[in-house]
Design a protein that fits this description.
By secondary structure, this protein is mainly beta. The chain folds into two domains: 153 residues, Jelly Rolls (Sandwich), CATH 2.60.120; 350 residues, Glycosyl hydrolase domain, family 43 (Tachylectin-2, Chain A, 5 Propeller). Helices cover 6% and strands 38% of the residues. The strands form eight sheets. Strands 2, 3, 4, 28, 29, 31, 32 and 33 form an eight-stranded antiparallel β-sheet that branches. The longest helix is centred in the first third of the chain and has 12 residues.
Length: 518
């Protein structure tokens, strides 16, 4: 049956006219943002001057296949704290080998206070596709009389080895790879020329304030010209640092250095008005596609202090009860993954809902150790070779009972958060933007009926000639990189240095990122 067709643009414009468009902003109410050619993600409202009918929406990764079972005798039920580094077509993975409890939970293999009664091993694996992994026999460290293993660092007093490849152009070749590892008195700095043969960078700990039994990660920031290190500590209910690990709240400290040897006094990361929640690992890293932005995947640490009735509803309550005899929190704590972002490395926007939940109940989940996202976002081909690539994230499972398994998850590139419109149209106007480039690219997704349109506004808030909503060619589909066109033309002809605002109208659509390109 044929039905009258009303063009989507006409419907949008009629609805916006009825509601009152927001594009009539005060000409000088916002400072100009020098955007240049950098990519901007919709993780916050940094670009937005006004919006209506839109909301920021957090997206979650999709669980995929198990890519590794940590069944070597030096790995164990506490194998965790993955770090991933891509170098061309090679993906390196580092992780901790550590036994927590035996299979039935009757034996604890580390002291519940120091967590260092047993040897801790830093292990290495590599892959070409992010799915198939090889644990090479490196022959570097002895385990039970044999060096046929993938251990790259070991020590009863050294824990939570977290490496990175140093992008500092002044980095000496012998320090091409650096790492932080917890030891007596603080964090120790390590170095390596090849990523497998490691030695101390300094004989003493380089950072001494903090509680270091977590993944303490560092990296070089080329935009600011210094190193960052994010580490763990505790504060009390008044927000003051405390050594009381029983009543204190787990938090994140940050410190900086220009030489990786001398570090500034650590200070607490700030979360604005977000609730004061206990955070374990932090997962903070620069986002490679927009390195002025940092993203983080902290593990939220929740002590539920279960009633006996509630405990019986969770997976394997008997094992949970047995490990609580060593430390109550080993059974009462559950964890999940969160998402946060920052533009200055100190103040973060942290989402309250989980980025990754513990998931449907099965034999070995809903435990302390769920949701520890491996450090490093790895771009990998999608399962369908005809579509665009995606991010792979790695999260271990079966904590405590082992052997731990590593599961790959996938997420749309730039797809942490979107600016989303439901079926009814929504719109936003940016602050004034000064940009370089001749075209505008967007990462977006729509339904079959949805669409996005864009117009450029001048200083007076009026559409620039040739770049109005009516002249914009509808954007619909699902792609990481689509060039906006107006009447078939993509080139943006704006005098050098002139600031413009973007006015975008969305219907049943998600906008993930935008970028002005050459």
């Amino acid at each position: 049956m044929n039905r009258p067709h009303v063009p989507l643009l006409s419907a949008l414009l009629l609805l916006l006219a009825a509601a009152g468009s927001i594009r009539a902003v005060e000409p000088n109410q916002d400072e100009v943002i020098d955007l240049g050619a950098r990519r901007e993600l919709m993780v916050d409202e940094f670009l937005i001057a006004q919006k209506s009918g839109l909301e920021l929406r957090l997206h979650t990764p999709t669980p995929r296949e198990i890519v590794m079972v940590r069944d070597a005798p030096w790995e164990g039920s506490g194998s965790d704290f993955e770090t991933l580094i891509r170098e061309g077509d090679l993906i390196r993975m580092y992780y901790i080998g550590n036994e927590l409890t035996n299979a039935d939970g009757t034996t604890l293999h580390q002291d519940p206070i120091t967590a260092r009664s047993r040897e801790i091993y830093a292990c290495y694996a590599e892959s070409r596709d992010g799915i198939h992994w090889v644990r090479p026999e490196l022959g570097l460290f002895e385990f039970h009389g044999s060096k046929r293993n993938n251990i790259v660092w070991s020590g009863p007093q050294l824990d939570n080895f977290t490496p990175f490849r140093d992008a500092n152009p002044a980095c000496p070749p012998e320090e091409k790879y650096k790492a932080m590892a917890a030891g007596p008195g603080g964090l120790f700095a390590l170095k390596s020329a090849d990523g497998t043969h490691w030695s101390y960078l300094a004989g003493n700990p380089v950072i001494t304030r903090g509680k270091f039994d977590s993944q303490n990660n560092a990296f070089w920031d080329p935009l600011r010209g210094h190193y960052w290190c994010y580490l763990r500590d505790f504060h009390d209910r008044d927000g003051q640092p405390t050594n009381d690990t029983k009543t204190g709240i787990r938090d994140i400290l940050v410190t900086t250095s220009t030489d990786f040897r001398t570090w500034s006094e650590p200070r607490r990361v700030q979360f604005g008005k977000a609730p004061d929640e206990a955070l374990y690992i932090n997962g903070i890293q620069p986002y490679a596609r927009a390195p002025h932005l940092f993203v983080g995947f902290p593990a939220r640490y929740v002590d539920r202090d279960f009633s006996p009735e509630a405990m019986r509803t969770l997976p394997d309550p008997e094992h949970r009860q047995r490990r609580m005899q060593f430390s109550h929190r080993y059974g009462s704590v559950v964890t999940d993954a969160m998402f946060m972002s920052s533009r200055d490395g100190v103040s973060f926007d942290r989402w309250g809902e989980a980025f990754i939940r513990p998931g449907p109940q099965r034999k070995n989940n809903w435990v302390y150790g769920d949701g520890f996202v491996g450090l490093g976002l790895i771009e990998t081909p999608a399962e369908d070779p005809t579509t665009e690539p995606e991010f792979s994230l790695y999260i271990h499972e079966d904590h405590w009972k082992g052997p731990t398994r590593l599961r790959r998850h996938t997420l749309r590139i730039d797809g942490f958060v979107s600016l989303q419109a439901r079926q009814s149209p929504g719109e936003f106007v940016t602050k004034p933007l000064r940009f370089s480039g001749r075209k505008l690219s967007v990462n977006f997704s729509t339904s079959a009926a949805g669409a996005i349109r864009v117009e450029l506004l001048g200083a007076d808030g009026r559409p620039l000639p040739g770049y109005s909503l009516k002249e914009c060619d509808e954007l619909f589909g699902d792609t990481l990189d689509r060039t906006v066109t107006w009447s078939g033309r993509s080139e943006i002809k704006v005098p050098a240095g002139q600031a413009v605002r973007l006015h975008m109208v969305l219907s049943d659509a998600d906008l993930y990122s935008l970028q002005f390109q050459p």
